[in-house]
Amino acid sequence: MKLLFTPGADGIGTLVLSNPPHNSFDQPRFAQRSELEQVLDHPGQKALILRGEGRHFSHGADPEKLREQLRDPGFHHEMDRGKELLALVADAPVPTLALVRGGCLGAGLEIALCCHFRFAASSALFGFPEVELGLVPGFGGPLFLDGVATRRTAIDLLLSGRMIGATEAHALGIVDRVCPGAALEQNTRDFLHGLVGKRTVSQVRAVMESIRNARRLPLADALRRETELFLKVARGE
Amino acid sequence: MASERSPRLALELDGGIARLILDAPPRNEMDQGFFSDFAALAGTLMELPVRGLVIHGAGRHFSSGADTSALKAGVAGAHLALSALTLLEATESFQAVSDLPYPSVAAVGGCCLGSGLELALACRWRVAAANAVFALPETSFDLMPGCGGTVRLPQLVGRGRAVELLLSGRFVDAEEALEIGLVDAVVDRRDLLATARRLVERIPG
Asked: Which of A204, A211, A224 is opposite residue B162, by nearest beta carbon?
């Protein structure tokens, strides 16, 4: 898997998951940590689009390669490093949006679920096929899905391994917006532009940090930090 | 019935339920004086021998929040220390509502914006009239929410939705507020206070 990053002149960058044709993950540690950090932290960036190269978002782990690696005693460690990369995406300092065409499966869906938003082409497909291979999702998929959709939905998708279309994914709360493939790119840009176009980089980062703090810090600390961030923004720092 | 009154807030006790009225019509705007009065009242609330608290606005609106231009002038100008202090005090007194030893409910009609919404978020429940509109529009004024909104909103509506509402600053009507979990019920305006009261009364004292 290669990460192809293009910064945007309007502050909206694009990160392409590239390992055509299915943009499969050859290994859990799918990128260098520093490389991913640089993309997320790119100066002047206010939002980031994640997408796959070509027709698909990502079909997740390559089952053949996965089976080989499972025998490796260091595999547990590699899984942990992979999860750390996903946590980086989930904690991104700017809003992230997964632009989904084609298959968005397994680890591919897990990384999409780490994003704040998911916009899909009507023809996109979602699912956790791991159970069909005698496995379970290994990247904290259940966890992230739980934050987005209901627990009932998570159990359904994780245990059945069934594939769902974009419309059903939208109804289940996994996808925020569905539109014809031809309009997807423009819809995504319009949405993100409406979100951050008029905001300063420091506003975006302050709001995102505070939202992150809500989940990570004790309430009193998160509230205190919010006041500090407010003052920073108000003083134009 | 007992009552206590500051120029901007009225507190009434009625049948074991306290009613706190944001009383600066028409918009019940929260100025520096409001925040001081509210902070002073927070201690009183803690000691009240009641089973629940209903907070609502006088007249048509809940509250339009703080006057952002005054807030910005305060932060940028000579009153810097004062404003930072006001903000901390406001955040702490809103938190005091969350920490009350009895349940609280915001009964929201009309505008519920900025720090008005942040106060409503600090309550255990929110009941809205069909005409209610909600927003944390601070980012549109080159600011961000500073009284708990960025911390409490994601806990209520989820991470992605909070990012969207906080950065866009857009308005949410009562129907959408119910759909995304921002409010717990939407009722006819005439039934607003009665519904809010029933909510807190259901909890045994």
From this structure: A211
Cβ neighbourhood burial of A55 (10 Å; 0-12, 13-18, 19+): middle
Scanning A177-196 for CB atoms below 8 A from B yields 194-196
Q: Which residues contact B91 (CB under 8 A, 6 or more apart)?
A: A223, A224, A226, A227, B146, B147, B148
For the full predicted model, state whether its pTM sits above 0.90: yes
Which residues of chain A make contact with B70, given a CB cutoff of 8 A? none
| Rounded Cα–Cα distance for residues B40 and A177 (Å) | 46
DSSP state, residue B140: G
CATH number of domain containing B47: 3.90.226.10
Question: What is the number of domains present in chain B?
Answer: 1
A227 contacts on B by Cβ (under 8 Å)? 84, 87-88, 91, 146
ipTM value, please give it: 0.91
Count CB-CB contacts under 10 A for residue B88. Answer: 18
pLDDT in tens, B91-127: 999 999 999 999 999 999 999 999 999 999 999 999 9
Q: Which domain holds residue B144?
A: 2-201
